[in-house]
Amino acid sequence: MTHLQAGLSPETLEKARLELNENPDTLHQDIQEVRDMVITRPDIGFLRTDDAFILRFLRARKFHHFEAFRLLAQYFEYRQQNLDMFKSFKATDPGIKQALKDGFPGGLANLDHYGRKILVLFAANWDQSRYTLVDILRAILLSLEAMIEDPELQVNGFVLIIDWSNFTFKQASKLTPSMLRLAIEGLQDSFPARFGGIHFVNQPWYIHALYTVIRPFLKEKTRKRIFLHGNNLNSLHQLIHPEILPSEFGGMLPPYDMGTWARTLLDHEYDDDSEYNVDSYSMPVKEIEKELSPKSMKRSQSVVDPTALKRMDKSEEENMQPLLSLD
């Protein structure tokens, strides 16, 4: 075991060896092979290439050197292409802070039975008058940056539960294809995190419809890890034990405190509220849409027409089983 693996338990070390092809004897060589590829992309500013940083990309891509490098390049390229998103990229930024305090994201205290961190989002908490969807994405990315420092989570990964209860059609109308694509690019294509499952619960028909729009942009591996449970929490409990879930998800724990993770990041500044005008944000969604490549925009110009989509029968939704299984 090298010093780069010092934060891993014996169980996680073995998991890294078996599932991720991590070998302590070749670890430094693996890292150097990825680092040597940096010269092939002079168009990208690689702001970090230290051993510990590159290692998280290798783990995210099971030590396939080229795939790890491609993810590393996309990580920095995404930040170059969306510079305004990463200005004032800190928990005390007013927009990020408001999103964090409303539970975007939340994190449960207990890991699941695979050692994965469980992230939760309560979609209806979004207050459009106080912060934007971009602020929510920034808060999620900032939170992942903090969490991925834990080597255990680099190996074991994350699970995400999104509760769509009381999420209105008006709120959903803000989830434009281009905004969703920005999130997909930031989370699926440009971040070194392993997501073992993404669970939708209590989703209305229009969220199911939106999923059909974004599905072509998702990788096959991602699609296999998305579960649409509807109101069937029993199917959720088959994958995540109710003993570690709050009552909102039919679990045995008390209701989730939305400020739990925000207090961790903000510490003593949690209660220091400052005024934030959503219109003052320097790069609103419309401007971000302009920044997307022409090819991306061509693929995502269409807006969901609710009248053209088949409305899901309520009883069908309530009884919906997960569409796919984890590998």
TrEMBL record:
Q: Which GO terms describe its molecular function?
A: phosphatidylinositol-3,5-bisphosphate binding
Q: Which residues form a coiled coil?
A: none
Segments forming domain CRAL-TRIO: 96-257
Q: Pfam family of this protein, just one?
A: CRAL_TRIO_N
Q: Which UniProt keywords apply?
A: Cytoplasmic vesicle, Endosome, Golgi apparatus, Lipid-binding, Membrane
Superkingdom = Eukaryota
Matches recorded under InterPro entries: CRAL-TRIO_dom, CRAL-TRIO_dom_sf, CRAL/TRIO_N_dom, CRAL/TRIO_N_dom_sf
Record GO biological process: lysosome organization
CC annotations in GO? clathrin-coated vesicle; early endosome membrane; trans-Golgi network
Q: Where in the cell is it found?
A: Cytoplasmic vesicle, Clathrin-coated vesicle; Early endosome membrane; Golgi apparatus, trans-Golgi network membrane
Membrane topology label: Peripheral membrane protein
Query: Which Gene3D superfamilies does this UniProt record tie to the protein?
Result: Alpha-tocopherol transfer (1.20.5.1200), CRAL-TRIO lipid binding domain (3.40.525.10), N-terminal domain of phosphatidylinositol transfer protein sec14p (1.10.8.20)
Q: Where is this region: Disordered?
A: 289-327
Task: Name the major location.
Answer: cytoplasm
The keyword Membrane appears for this protein: yes
Purpose of the protein = Required for normal morphology of late endosomes and/or lysosomes in neurons. Binds phosphatidylinositol 3,5-bisphosphate (PtdIns(3,5)P2).
How it assembles, according to the record, is:
Forms a complex with clathrin heavy chain and gamma-adaptin.
> What protein name does the entry list?
Clavesin-2
UniProt organism field: Mesocricetus auratus
